[in-house]
Amino acid sequence: MRVYFLGAGASKAIFPLLPTAKDLTLTSLMEESYGMPQPEIRALSRFSLDHPSLIAVPIEEVLDDLESDPLRTTVLTCVLRRLAIAKNGYPQEFQSWLEDIWENDHAVLTSNYDTVVERGIGNLGQKFKIRRGTQLSKMEDIGLIDYGFSVEGDHVDRGFRPIRVFKLHGSISWSACTRKSCGWFERGLHAGRAENALSGDFQCPKCHSPTEPVIVPPSRVKDCRRPFIQTIWERAKEVLKQADEIVFAGFSLDPSDQHINDLLRGTFDQSTTKKVVVVDTGAEELSNRYVAVYGRIVERHNQSWRDYLARQCKGSRTRQSQSHSAR
């Protein structure tokens, strides 16, 4: 089995306007071209004037300084909106990659909040409709995706194998009821629910209590103890231990992200992984971080995720052509 571990660089390779962690700053959040509400922009502008040293630093450091500040909610709301994608213009190589994952039962792990992978799978679902005669309404209703945890209303008997997508830090499209006894939870393919929950604009349709986003905020110190998130991490451990090969795409393996480093080291010690591939435009610079975890089995590809997928897709077509010719 192959496990793909996607970072922000992988999403940016598909949709260039999406930011990486270093792109997310107060300055970038205040750019009106991204559709931020004017009240939020004004609040961020006032904060920036009072804290000029924080204007250009990664938003993770800003949120650490705002732990008990009301502006923290404003910053998080802007981050969630900045990560939304407004179109479905997926390259063919990305869709072919997702189809290969489905056909070969590979798995995707990601630290990203965005919905790039889920929406791509939604597009793939339209193709399955033709192939399988499945009647689609909302994609989540037929369970194309195994998110690593189940909630009330999940379809267990899908009639086909879902694609495993384990989002280690939650999603911009997830929200949950704040009343624990209620148990309501929403997962969709599109952005918005986490942002609406954070701003108080959406109530639980089941018990009318407030809702909350299901994300691990992008701060230096990440709290992954929430039950839903913990379950995802346990599933992630399982697939990493079973992986013959792990492909890291657009993921920097920041030494300060202790949770991820502990996850990778702990599972590798109990795995039979024989190959680790690092795909990034800065793969050479990042390689030492991966070698420190995986040793000599690390292979580097100094290119973007999209270019890597295009190359893999071309190689697959060539092999298929040669196979047909041999017959």
Features:
327 residues, alpha/beta, Rossmann fold, seven-stranded parallel β-sheet, three-stranded antiparallel β-sheet, 10 strands
- What CATH architecture label of the largest domain applies? 3-Layer(aba) Sandwich
Kindly report how far apart the N and C termini lie.
28 Å
Question: Helical percent range?
Answer: 40-55%
Enumerate the strands of the largest sheet in spatial order, edge to edge or round the barrel.
3-4-2-1-8-9-10
CATH class of the largest domain: Alpha Beta
Return residue spans where pLDDT drops below 50 for at least 5 consecutive residues.
133-141
Specify Rg, calculated over alpha carbons: 20 Å
Question: What's the mean pLDDT score?
Answer: 85
- SSE topology string: EHHHHHHEHEEEEHEHEHEHEH
Describe the global form.
Answer: globular
SS summary, helix count: 12
Number of domains: 3
CATH homologous superfamily of the largest domain, by name?
A: TPP-binding domain
Largest sheet: 7 strands, parallel
How much of the sequence lies in strands comes to 5-15%
Structural class: alpha/beta
Short description, anyone?
The protein has 327 residues and is an alpha/beta fold. It has helices at 8-14, 26-29, 38-50, 59-65, 71-82, 92-104, 116-132, 193-199, 227-242, 258-268, 283-294, 305-326; strands at residues 2-6, 107-110, 145-146, 163-167, 170-177, 185-187, 211-215, 245-249, 275-279, 298-301. It folds into three domains: 1-17 and 91-169 and 223-327, Rossmann fold (3-Layer(aba) Sandwich); 26-82, no CATH class; 172-215, no CATH class.
